[in-house]
Write a structure and sequence with these properties.
The structure holds 5 protein chains of 5 kinds.
Chain A (H helix, E strand, L loop, with lengths): L2 H9 L1 E12 L2 E12 L3 E5 L6 H8 L7 E6 L2 E3 L4 H7 L1 E3 L12 H7 L9 H6 L3 H19 L15 H14 L4 E5 L7 H17 L3 E5 L3 H7 L2 E6 L2 E6 L1 H5 L2 H9 L3
Parallel strand pairs in A: 3-8, 3-9, 6-7, 7-8
Antiparallel strand pairs in A: 1-2, 1-4, 4-5, 9-10
Chain B lengths: L2 H34 L6 H16 L6 H8 L12 H22 L9 H23 L16 H7 L16 H23 L1 H11 L1 H6 L4 H27 L9 H11 L4 H21 L1 H4 L4 H15 L14
Helix pairs in contact in B: 1-7, 1-10, 1-11, 1-12, 2-4, 2-5, 2-10, 4-10, 7-8, 7-10, 11-12, 11-14, 12-14
Chain D lengths: L12 H4 L6 H20 L3 H27 L7 H18 L5 H20 L10 H18 L12 E2 L3 E3 L2 E4 L5 H24 L1 H11 L1 H6 L4 H28 L1 E2 L1 H4 L2 H14 L4 H25 L4 H22 L3 H15 L5
Antiparallel strand pairs in D: 1-4, 2-3
Helix pairs in contact in D: 2-7, 3-7, 3-10, 3-12, 3-13, 4-5, 4-6, 4-10, 5-10, 7-8, 7-10, 8-10, 12-13, 12-15, 13-14, 13-15
The chains are: A alpha/beta, B mainly alpha, C alpha/beta, D mainly alpha, E alpha/beta.
């Protein structure tokens, strides 16, 4: 590999995990995992149940703190940080079990996603008229574009609790997008969806990647989907990494095949 | 032994006894919370109502006499008979069971699957209702409760310990209230029998099943409605016991309903779902507040018990947010 | 022959094209909203001057990209401001806009592209662009595709065909304008009233679509005069929600908007039309009978779920409305007590109901295209909505006849519009001559000649007659009117319409031409019947299952016999009673080619495709197996099959009745 | 039924996100304001002002404050009485220490002081959740009352620990003290109530409010989208306490004119404000008002009906009052568990859909 | 909207319920519910029954009927204000709030409305300074004179000297309970005894710590300022630790039949009082005849003759005397509240007067003046006889250390005047 090329690749690494170890009271959830995510790519994490996929996502967005290892994001090493600080760094995510704010409307949920982009202090907000309203309107406009993008205009003011599952997932994606993240973590975005909803979701994910250039890391069980939309795939099993590469490489990797056959997928 | 040390022991022992008294109230809360997730604000009023009913039956009071007299211009007070204590207690239990059935049928049944705060509010409504109802039924004057409980300090203990203090120090022997000792005994019997009930009887096991998982309980064919009636009946019985113990101290009067406040820190400390928690929480609170009042109170003006109980509970909770015996809260993403 | 004496004129001298009207409006109504679209949660608005500016920049941009007078520019888009602006921009250049149905499939589109020889296409979004690219190889003439919505357009290969963003074209136009601020004005002033303003492709019940060529004089004059007649002003609000390629939308949402200066509103998405309509509260409204019908069905279904008291109240006041409302609307004398009851009903039912339907402010509503059920028609009129029928077609720029105020009947379509001459041909066909009569069929002289005589008389293809009051009454398509073996007249549409007035019947196809008896296919209304099933605890998984349910069949049977009974009254049609019927196992669908895009039945195709069933009907069978192909929304093709039961319907003997 | 929404469309985000987007609601609101500011003062008697309207407004402010904490942020608090006491005593100290200070400043400052105290006692909320959090606030309740009772400085060393509000004027109108007219006191409280409701609305509709609701609905998700739980919770405690402090301040200075901490600000106050917001509706500004109205006016109304109109003995009436209020709470909860505000919302939705049922 | 509607209804019911104006109205802000109901009910009964007696026996006061509209406060200050506002428009002549807390709310209000506020044995002690508190009448005794009288009694019992004696004050930790502290502190300095302060929080059901402390420290005397359940528990605990009951003194609010429920357990317990005990007075015969037998009692009649009933009746008698005085001074029968105030200020209760009222030696002799609304503060001592289960008067109505108390009253009232910009009256 020529030197300039190497440099280029080094520069475009958005996230790099180095030798991450994570355990809960002696139970190892993740052991010695290293991998990177390049800027602008769709990176999938796959693996059988309990392989540590969600834990890995939780490490990335700061909900868990690994006992060992380094995390580099956007060229800087990250030291122990609270999840909300990581949100400010430009990582947002969705959850495996929908974690919407049940008491709020779709619009408010997505507006909450703009939290890191709003800065007017409490006094301005108490007054409302003036800067706070201005800021609110600016962000509303942004959010409306997301609503338009996700084609959820008709449910804009519906309380999220009343929505069907598939739409809730879409709203959650909207909330994550509203933060204009550099990197978007999706935890099983298509779990529990029917074919049509899955297709929609795939389209949205690819459109996000395409339109906003957002780097995407996703966990997904549906191999077809993963192979379709991911640029590169990491395979985990029992907290260890057993494969990494393009979908084609991974698909033909014997270790991966064994692991999957082993749990009879 | 120095007198100070002996006093400290005395304070601790009395604190334990006081703690038992708190636990008696807290127990009722825990039972209902465990089985139905309801924080029963009306528990204190239930204690008052049970005690009022007991005294009323025992002394042969005419229920609603005030109302009857106001409407019909009559002047009835008492039937003129005395009911034996045990029979009166049995009858009171019967009343509490009827009460439980009514509560289930007309209130809880309509509020199944509501949020805890809503159910909490419902019990507040219930408390209001019973406060008015109890007073109308039995009148608001102070009543003496006489079920033959002993009172006064234990002389035997006092004499026995008199000589323990070092020479020349002022010491009058260890003081323990006999009523408190009886209360502790009753509490032990109550907890043991509750445990036996829940471990070794079908109904008891059903209760535990409900506490663990409503759905599971339903799927094995246990009627939630029956369970709730039973739980509220037991809670009513516990309220009666608490009412007797506290009523013996102060007479049966409105203030009895305020003992619920003393149970709150106990509950928070012990966890809402644990019967041992209620007992041990009570003991900790009792000893803690008495010791603090003894050691620190005089320096800062006294009457610290009320707030110190909460501060104590708070200190425990900061380290164990789910209470001492509460189930661990697991945060999942 | 019937004729209206008035001759239409332009709104003002010289205002003979839409671009000129636009400039006029920009001066007259500078800051009045000309166009609104709900987007990003609010009603984005453009005043007339802003619209003029948008149109100017886009027109100059198009010109910069080589569009010149006489060119056809294909427009594929929904009801969006830019779609309408594109039309005007194209017209400004003297070129001809060719709007197409944006839900048409690629192959249909290919025909239009080829036939119109369009070099430039303005498409709404990625979906439309994809369709164009699909058929690009067959349409080499296409040079430039302009898209409106940039979403997903990143990374499209520009080598195959030039693809440009709408705003980019406008920016180019802006540059042109900077260089020569007068250029647009010059272009516009070159337009004349007799120039071709638009080509609209009619889907046609058979064969390939025909491009109806209309001039400014056709559309502008009829639109303007129609508006004048009804007293429309610049303060009207209209909701544009029907296909832009359809003449109705073109007249109501474009021609009349420009001519009268009123505001056109576009919905946010197809799912939010009802909500958006409620927000806007149009004062001028058009909907085909089908829409009014489904709205009414919806109202009835929703009221079924109401509490008994409310339901009773609703029924009572609807009864009051029926007796009083229409009289009030027609300014007939009504007793004080009835007025009071109606006023009370207005507070409790009518006004809130109208408001909920978004018709709270409607001053004028039209319906056309098909016959509307008397019940349905009366329902809206009794609420105080001034709904009127009109009769027209693409070739006539809509207006042939309109019901004048005070002469509104459910079974006629009114008297001739201004400047329209009308007569009934010997074969019963309605023919007319009018200012709106089309110029020609594009590149189709044969059809033009067969439809439009040299004296300018246009054949409508509809059979009808003039009632004594001078109103036109349409029975059926002229070519569909057939005869029984007995030689008596068979008007299938007439019977079908009667059937379709039942809320649970979505569609009906009757047969009788060259036969002894009339028999029918029925499509149930999934919404109405589904709701009924839910209330009666009838489980069903699909349309097919519901259609096969005996209770449903029984219900439909009752409806059929009711129709039969009603037919008794009409001497001409008493023998057309439906003797047997069946409920189809699938819904007739435009995607399967069974309906036109405007949801008209394609009889020929159905005759072929369902021959088995027709034979079974006439063979007196009670059961029949059928398998049909269906196209799914994503383009895949599947099969639906099943046994269909056939039922006899109760018929009435005309003689017995008479005696 | 009364809603006519056709043609009521919004062309800007300001209009779309206004508090009363529907014209009918807007007019209704203007009407209520007109009644409250113009009509009511015309008919105000001492009794209506001091026994009905002023307490209603004072409690409504407290309920508003508590609703921010409990309803919007999901942090259960039973310390309202204590915080009100802080507001009241702060007012007393400010009024007596700086006799020249105008009342608005006094009351706002009292609110600020309470906000600081409230934020302090909000700290445990970072670790303790749900019903358990009540312990922290109860500790505040009992400790604050004890402290204010125990330290004579707070009540200027008066014999009984009673504090009483001296007379103060604003613009030449007497606001506090026995010579204040009912209209002055009423309008003063109304001004605060409306102003604070407006602020509450502003705070809850914007960034801060959403961060509160996010914490309430799902704290983990909230944190992951950038909400700092510490600032969100503490700001809720502070704002809530600010409101409650003002309420306590008005309670003491305008409403009662004198107070004694153990009697006026006991635990029962904390509970009754909590009842107000649950009955009224958690997370609803209107609910705070209607809940306060229920808890304040219902007993007064019942008393007037039972004792005044029907001539029952006062004790019997008082007992029936309990029974009826308790019964009504239960009935309301069974009909609509989410409070009177939700009932109003459902009613409004029904009216908007009228004649349709859904 | 809801509240305006409610307000209208409330308003209309109020209009309906307004009593006949011609009566002499003495509102009674009673509490027959809540934690202190057991104390509030007998007092209210006595208060109401006496006026009923006047109506039935004498045809009212000076021929004008009296009315006692009762309003339930539940011992709640806010409700007290509501009651005040609700009744003051009916021509109220004097208020009897029966709660120290409510008294404090009403002091400024009554002053503004020119209605006398009668607080017999409770309320604001410094209200005795008529120069500052023109409308407060807290004769014949107050918390401070009670405290002083108790100290005097202890001195008497101990041969006149109490220096180095340990005296504990067990008090209700509220405004009421804290009232005697300054006086006792001053007295402690003066007489050289040690004062221990032992507060008990409301409601006072749990006093273990306090009584363990007392048991440890063995104070020579205990002074009890309690109310409600606190009294019962305190006396019970005192008996439990076998505290010598005759060394324990209560203020009059801790000296009722309710408090000594234990019977023999409280035998010997003493309490201050400003009126006599029992029902052996002519007035009771009248009450029995005109009120009880006529079925006109306010309560169920069971309270007649109890300490609190007597106190209520005594207060009513004083109010009636004030009203009669006012009628005399102003020469009108239908007096206003302002005249009532003048009547009270000119009150001179002599033994002859008491005898004429059918209550010979029921209370101390005293007179009221413009500057002194508290009277001489004479206080008696009663003692509980566990055998007969009744209170007995064991010490006559004697003056406390008025010199010391007056100084305290002066200081406290002047501080109030300064805080509230009141210019003391000249008299």
């Amino acid at each position: 590999m020529s030197e300039p090329l190497q440099k280029m690749e080094a520069a475009s690494k958005l996230l790099e995990l180095k030798h991450i170890d994570l355990s809960f009271g002696g139970v190892k959830a993740i052991s010695n995992i290293s991998f990177d995510v390049l800027e602008g790519e769709v990176r999938a994490i796959i693996g059988p149940n309990g392989a540590g996929k969600s834990s890995l996502l939780n490490v990335i967005n700061g909900f868990y703190h690994p006992q060992q290892g380094e995390i580099w994001f956007d060229g800087k090493q990250r030291h122990s940080m609270k999840p909300y600080q990581i949100a400010y760094q430009g990582i947002s995510r969705t959850f495996q079990n929908i974690a919407l704010f049940k008491g709020m409307s779709v619009l408010d949920n997505i507006m909450t996603g703009r939290f890191t982009h709003m800065h007017k202090n409490m006094l301005w907000q108490a007054l409302w008229k003036g800067p706070a309203e201005q800021e609110e309107i600016e962000n509303r406009e942004f959010v409306e574009h997301i609503i338009d993008f996700l084609e959820i205009q008709a449910i804009r003011k519906t309380p999220v609790g009343r929505l069907p599952y598939g739409l809730q997932k879409r709203v959650e994606l909207g909330r994550a997008l509203a933060a204009q993240p550099k990197m978007l973590l999706l935890d099983e975005p298509m779990a529990g969806m029917n074919v049509e909803e899955k297709e929609d979701m795939c389209r949205f994910i690819l459109d996000v990647n395409d339109t906003f250039g957002t780097t995407i890391v996703l966990i997904e069980h549906d191999m077809g989907v993963v192979m379709d939309i991911a640029d590169r795939v990491v395979v985990l099993d029992y907290g260890r990494k057993i494969g990494d590469g393009t979908p084609d490489v991974v698909r033909n990797d014997q270790t991966v095949i064994d692991a999957y056959l082993g749990v009879s997928h | 032994m120095s007198a100070d040390f002996l006093y400290t022991i005395e304070v601790i022992l009395n604190g334990l006894m006081a703690g038992v008294m708190y636990s008696l109230v807290a127990l009722g809360f825990v039972l209902i919370f465990k089985a139905s997730g309801i924080f029963n604000y009306a528990q204190g009023v239930m204690a008052l109502f049970a005690a009022l009913t007991l005294v009323g039956i025992q002394t042969g009071q005419v229920p609603f006499s005030h109302l009857i007299n106001a409407i019909f211009g009559t002047n009835v007070h008492h039937f003129g008979w005395q009911v034996p204590t045990l029979l009166a207690i049995a009858l009171t239990i019967g009343v509490m069971v009827v009460f439980a059935i009514i509560v289930e049928r007309y209130i809880l049944h309509h509020l199944v699957n509501q949020e805890p705060i809503i159910l909490f509010m419902a019990t507040i409504g219930l408390a209001y209702f019973m406060e008015g109802f109890g007073d109308i039924m039995w009148g608001s004057d102070i009543k003496t409760l006489d079920v033959g409980l002993p009172s006064g300090g234990s002389l035997w203990l006092e004499e026995y310990t008199l000589g323990w203090a070092a020479e020349g120090e002022q010491y009058y022997g260890m003081y323990l209230d006999k009523l408190d000792m009886v209360a502790s005994l009753v509490a032990i019997v109550l907890v043991v029998s509750l445990t036996i009930f829940s471990q070794y009887t079908t109904t008891g096991r059903a209760l535990r099943a409900v506490a663990d998982d409503h759905q599971a309980a339903l799927s094995v064919g246990i009627s939630l409605r029956t369970i709730w009636v039973i739980v509220w009946s037991i809670a009513g019985f516990v309220a009666l016991v608490a009412g007797i113990m506290w009523g013996a101290k102060s007479g049966v009067q409105f203030s009895l309903s305020l003992i619920a406040l003393k149970a709150l820190p106990v509950l928070m400390l012990g966890g809402f779902t644990s019967i041992p928690g209620a007992i041990i929480g009570g003991l900790i609170i009792g000893v803690g507040e008495k010791l603090f009042e003894y050691a620190i109170g005089p320096m800062i003006g006294g009457a610290t018990e009320n707030w110190f109980a909460y501060v104590l509970a708070l200190m425990f909770l900061v380290f164990r947010p789910q209470g001492l015996f509460g189930e661990k809260i697991i945060e999942r993403v | 022959m019937t004729q209206s004496s008035k001759k239409p004129t332009y709104p003002a001298p010289g205002l003979d094209t839409f671009p000129k009207l636009l400039q006029h409006n920009a001066r007259m109504f500078t800051d009045k909203d000309a166009m609104r679209e709900k987007e990003f949660g609010i009603w984005q608005s453009w005043t007339w001057s802003q619209v003029a500016d948008e149109v100017e920049r886009f027109a100059l941009g198009l010109q910069a990209n080589g569009v010149k007078a006489g060119d056809a520019v294909l427009i594929i888009g929904g009801n969006r401001p830019r779609t309408y602006w594109t039309m005007c921009a194209v017209q400004s250049l003297g070129a001809v806009p060719v709007p197409t149905y944006h839900d048409s499939v690629a192959s249909e589109m290919q025909f239009v592209i080829e036939h119109s020889e369009a070099r430039v296409i303005v498409a709404e979004d990625q979906e439309q662009v994809d369709k164009i690219l699909d058929v690009k190889d067959q349409c080499p003439a296409v040079e430039l595709v302009i898209y409106d919505d940039p979403r997903g357009m990143k990374g499209y290969d520009p080598e195959l065909v030039k693809i440009q963003d709408f705003v980019t074209i406008q920016a180019q136009g802006e540059d042109v304008r900077k260089k020569n601020p007068k250029q647009f004005q010059e272009l516009v002033s070159m337009g004349k009233g007799e120039d071709i303003s638009i080509i609209l492709y009619t889907s046609g019940t058979t064969g390939k679509p025909k491009g109806v060529v209309l001039t400014y004089d056709n559309t502008l004059l009829t639109g303007y005069y129609g508006g004048l007649l009804e007293g429309l002003t610049e303060n009207e609000e209209i909701l544009a929600y029907l296909p832009v390629a359809w003449i109705g939308d073109h007249i109501f949402s474009y021609a009349q908007s420009y001519a009268m200066g009123f505001c056109v509103n576009c919905a946010e998405s197809s799912e939010t039309i009802a909500a958006d309509m409620r927000e806007i509260g149009p004062t001028y409204y058009f909907a085909p009978p089908r829409v009014f019908e489904s709205l009414l069905t919806n109202v009835q279904i929703r009221m079924e779920d109401a509490a008994p008291f409310k339901r009773k109240m609703f029924k009572y006041f609807m009864q009051v409305a029926k007796t009083t409302g229409i009289k009030l609307l027609e300014k007939k004398s009504v007793s004080l007590f009835d007025r009071f009851k109606y006023a009370l009903g207005n507070v409790l039912v009518y006004a809130p109901l109208k408001d909920a339907l978004g018709m709270g402010r409607v001053r004028l509503a039209y319906t056309a295209g098909e016959a509307i059920g008397g019940e349905i028609f009366d329902f809206y009129r009794s609420l105080g909505i001034n709904i009127k029928q009109l009769y027209g077609q693409t070739e006539s720029s809509v207006f042939i006849t309109v019901q004048p105020d005070g002469e509104v009947f459910p079974d006629t379509v009114g008297t001739p519009s201004p400047g329209v001459e009308l007569k009934i041909a010997d074969n019963g066909e309605v023919i007319y001559r009018s200012p709106g009569a089309f110029h020609s069929y594009f590149k189709n002289p044969e059809s033009t000649a067969s439809t439009k005589t040299s004296e300018g008389w246009v054949h409508t293809g509809d059979a009808g007659f003039m009632t004594q009051s001078g109103h036109l009454r349409i029975i059926d398509r002229a070519k569909d009117v057939g005869a029984f073996n007995s030689g008596k007249m068979f008007a299938p549409k007439y019977i079908e319409n009667k059937l379709k007035f039942f809320p649970h019947i979505q569609e009906a196809v009757t047969f009788g031409d060259g036969r002894d008896e009339c028999m029918a296919f029925i499509n149930i209304d999934l919404g109405a019947v589904g709701n009924w099933a839910e209330r009666n605890n009838i489980a069903y998984a699909s349309y097919q299952e519901l259609a096969a349910h005996p209770e449903v069949n029984k219900m439909v049977g009752e409806s059929v016999s009711q129709v039969n009974e009603s037919l008794l009254g009409d001497e001409m049609l008493a023998h057309s009673q439906v003797s047997r019927f069946l409920i189809l196992h699938k819904e007739l669908d435009a995607d399967d080619g069974e309906l036109t895009r405007t949801k008209k039945v394609k009889r020929k195709l159905i005759n072929e495709r369902y021959k088995v069933l027709i034979d079974a009907l006439y063979a007196g069978k009670t059961q029949c197996f059928i398998e049909t192909e269906v196209a799914f929304e994503d383009g895949r093709v599947g099969k639906i099959s099943g046994d269909i039961s056939i039922h006899d319907a109760k018929t009435y003997n005309p003689v017995a009745q008479a005696s | 039924m009364f809603y006519r929404e056709s043609g009521d469309f919004k062309k800007t985000y300001q209009k779309d996100s206004q508090t009363f987007p529907i014209k009918f609601d807007r007019w209704r609101y203007y009407f209520v304001m007109l009644v409250a500011f113009v009509v009511v003062p015309m008919f105000l008697t001492d009794y209506i002002a001091n026994a009905v309207m002023i307490p209603f407004l004072v409690w409504a402010i407290a309920a508003l404050g508590l609703n921010i904490l409990v309803g919007y942020t999901g942090q259960l608090s039973l310390g309202t009485g204590g915080f009100m006491a802080v507001g009241a005593y702060a007012t007393y100290k400010l009024m007596t220490a700086f006799p020249g200070m105008d009342m608005v400043s006094v009351i706002l400052l009292s609110g600020l002081i309470t906000a600081v105290v409230g934020a302090l006692f909000g700290l445990p909320s970072l670790r303790i959740k749900g019903f358990y959090l009540a312990v922290a606030t109860l500790a505040a309740q009992f400790f604050l009352v004890w402290l204010l009772n125990k330290v004579p400085w707070f009540y200027n060393y008066s014999a009984s620990g009673q504090i009483s509000a001296p007379q103060r004027e604003m613009f030449g109108v007497i606001i506090t003290g026995p010579h204040a007219t009912p209209v002055a006191g009423y309008l003063f409280c109304l001004g605060f109530a409306v102003g604070l409701a407006w602020i509450a609305r502003n705070l809850t509709r914007g960034r801060l409010g959403r961060s509160w609701m996010a914490i309430r609905d799902m704290d983990i998700a909230a944190e992951i989208i950038g909400v700092n739980p510490l600032t969100a919770k503490l700001s809720a405690f502070a704002v809530s306490s600010f409101f409650v402090g003002i309420s306590g301040s008005l309670f003491f200075s305008v409403y009662l004119g004198a107070a004694e901490v153990t009697e006026a600000f006991g635990i029962s106050v904390s509970f009754s404000v909590l009842f107000m917001i649950i009955i009224g509706g958690l997370g609803s500004i209107f609910g705070s008002f209607i809940g306060a109205a229920f808890m304040v006016l219902m007993p007064v109304l019942l008393k007037n009906v039972l004792v005044g109109a029907m001539g029952w003995p006062t004790d019997l009436a008082a007992h029936f009052e309990y029974i009826i209020v308790g019964g009504l709470i239960l009935i309301f909860l069974i009909i609509e568990p989410h409070g009177l505000a939700q009932m109003a919302r459902v009613l409004k939705e029904k009216l908007r859909l009228w004649p349709f049922p859904h | 909207m809801k509240f305006t509607k409610l307000a209208t209804v409330a308003l209309t019911t109020l209009a309906v319920s307004a009593p006949v104006v011609a009566d002499l109205v003495f509102p009674s802000l009673s509490y027959r519910t809540g934690p202190y109901a057991a104390g509030g009910a007998p007092y209210a009964d006595g208060y109401a029954d006496y006026f009923t007696l006047l109506n039935e026996r004498d045809g009212g006061i000076g021929g004008v009927l009296t009315a006692v509209p009762e309003c339930e406060t539940g011992y709640n200050t806010a409700k007290g204000v509501e009651c005040y506002e609700a009744t003051k428009g009916d021509g109220a002549l004097a208020y009897q709030p029966l709660s120290t807390g409510i008294t404090y709310q009403l002091i400024p209000k009554t002053m503004a409305d020119d209605i006398p506020l009668m607080t017999q044995g409770y309320g604001r002690t410094s209200g005795a300074n008529g120069k500052v508190f023109s409308h407060v009448f807290n004769f014949p005794a107050n918390y401070w004179s009670g405290a002083s009288r108790i100290i005097n009694r202890i001195m008497e019992e101990n041969g006149g000297t109490i220096s180095d004696r340990n005296i504990a004050l067990v008090y209700h930790n509220s405004g009421y309970g804290k009232e005697p502290i300054p006086t006792l502190k001053a007295l402690a300095t003066k007489h050289g005894f040690n004062l221990t302060l032992i507060p008990v929080d409301h409601p006072g059901q749990e006093q273990k710590s306090q009584w363990l402390q007392i048991r440890r420290e063995r104070p020579d005397n205990i002074i009890l300022y309690g109310w409600g359940v606190m009294n019962q528990v305190a006396l019970k605990e005192a008996a439990n630790i076998r505290y010598p009951m005759d060394q324990m003194f209560g203020i009059w609010w801790s000296g009722t039949e309710n408090d000594a429920l234990e019977g023999m357990g409280s035998h010997g317990y003493k309490a201050a009082t400003f009126h006599n005990v029992g029902s052996d007075y002519p007035v009771y015969k009248d009450i029995q005849k005109f009120v009880v037998d006529a079925g006109l009692t306010a309560g169920d009649g069971s309270n007649v003759g109890t300490v609190l009933y007597n106190r209520g009746m005594y207060s009513a008698m004083l109010a009636a005397a004030g009203a009669a005085n006012a009628q005399e001074i102003h020469g009108v029968k239908d007096i206003t509240s302002g005249m009532m105030r003048d009547g009270l200020e000119a009150l001179n209760v002599t033994n002859e007067f008491m005898a004429a009222a059918g209550m010979p030696e029921f209370g101390p002799e005293f007179s009221v003046s413009c500057s002194n609304h508290g009277g001489p503060g004479n206080v008696g001592i009663q003692q509980w006889d566990g055998n007969s289960r009744e209170w007995k008067l064991v010490g006559g109505f004697e003056a406390p250390d008025m010199e010391l108390i007056n100084a305290l009253i002066k200081a406290d009232s002047e501080a109030y005047a300064a805080e509230n910009n009141i210019t003391p009256r000249d008299c």
